[in-house]
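Private note to self, pasted from the team thread so I don't lose it. Backbone tokens:
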């Protein structure tokens, strides 16, 4: 049996829903990535701040800590797309934990622009991990969402 972790960041709940669906289908451990400093609820403010953080390659400090990442073989990592890439707290997560030699399966939710550079950046930041082709989903789940998740997961679990 493979040891599986799902780690995700979600600001408005869309990515959380997908993380929970993956959890139902895999029975994996689940971990919510949370920054120490909460992001603004105001959408405009958040969009501006996220752009600044991206341009500065900023790594916000994380509140929650994982005890032991070494025991996991497969790590699903979920993020909303922020400015064409992963959200800043996810950037911190993949820098902070040692994911060398692990299978990393990234997934994202977006507002219509698709994954853009999100998955390329996972591969770029994690050259020593086996980064699987990611799953990109629109922010609102539909009647195909479960099927898409299942199709994506199957070969990862049989890896
Ligand atoms: C700061 C910010 C930047 C965003 N940038 C993009 C983007 O570049 N492309 C896109 O398709 N959607 C973008 N969105 C929409 C989110 O990716 C989308 O709503 C996502 O499902 C939110 O996930 P969450 O509910 O887990 O936080 C952005 C949203 C925010 C708040």
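Design output:
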């Amino acid at each position: 049996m493979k040891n599986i972790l799902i780690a995700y960041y979600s600001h408005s709940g869309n990515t959380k829903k997908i993380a929970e669906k993956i959890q139902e289908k895999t029975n994996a451990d689940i971990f919510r990535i949370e920054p120490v400093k909460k992001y603004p609820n105001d959408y405009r403010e958040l969009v501006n701040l996220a752009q600044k953080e991206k341009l500065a390659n900023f790594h916000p400090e994380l509140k929650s800590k994982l005890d032991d990442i070494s025991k996991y073989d497969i790590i699903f990592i979920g993020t909303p797309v922020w400015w064409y890439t992963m959200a800043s707290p996810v950037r911190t997560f993949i820098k902070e934990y040692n994911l060398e030699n692990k299978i990393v399966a990234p997934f994202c939710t977006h507002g219509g622009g698709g994954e853009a550079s999100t998955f390329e950046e996972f591969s770029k930041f994690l050259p020593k991990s086996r980064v699987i082709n990611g799953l990109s989903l629109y922010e609102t789940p539909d009647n195909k969402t479960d099927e898409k998740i299942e199709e994506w997961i199957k070969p990862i679990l049989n890896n």
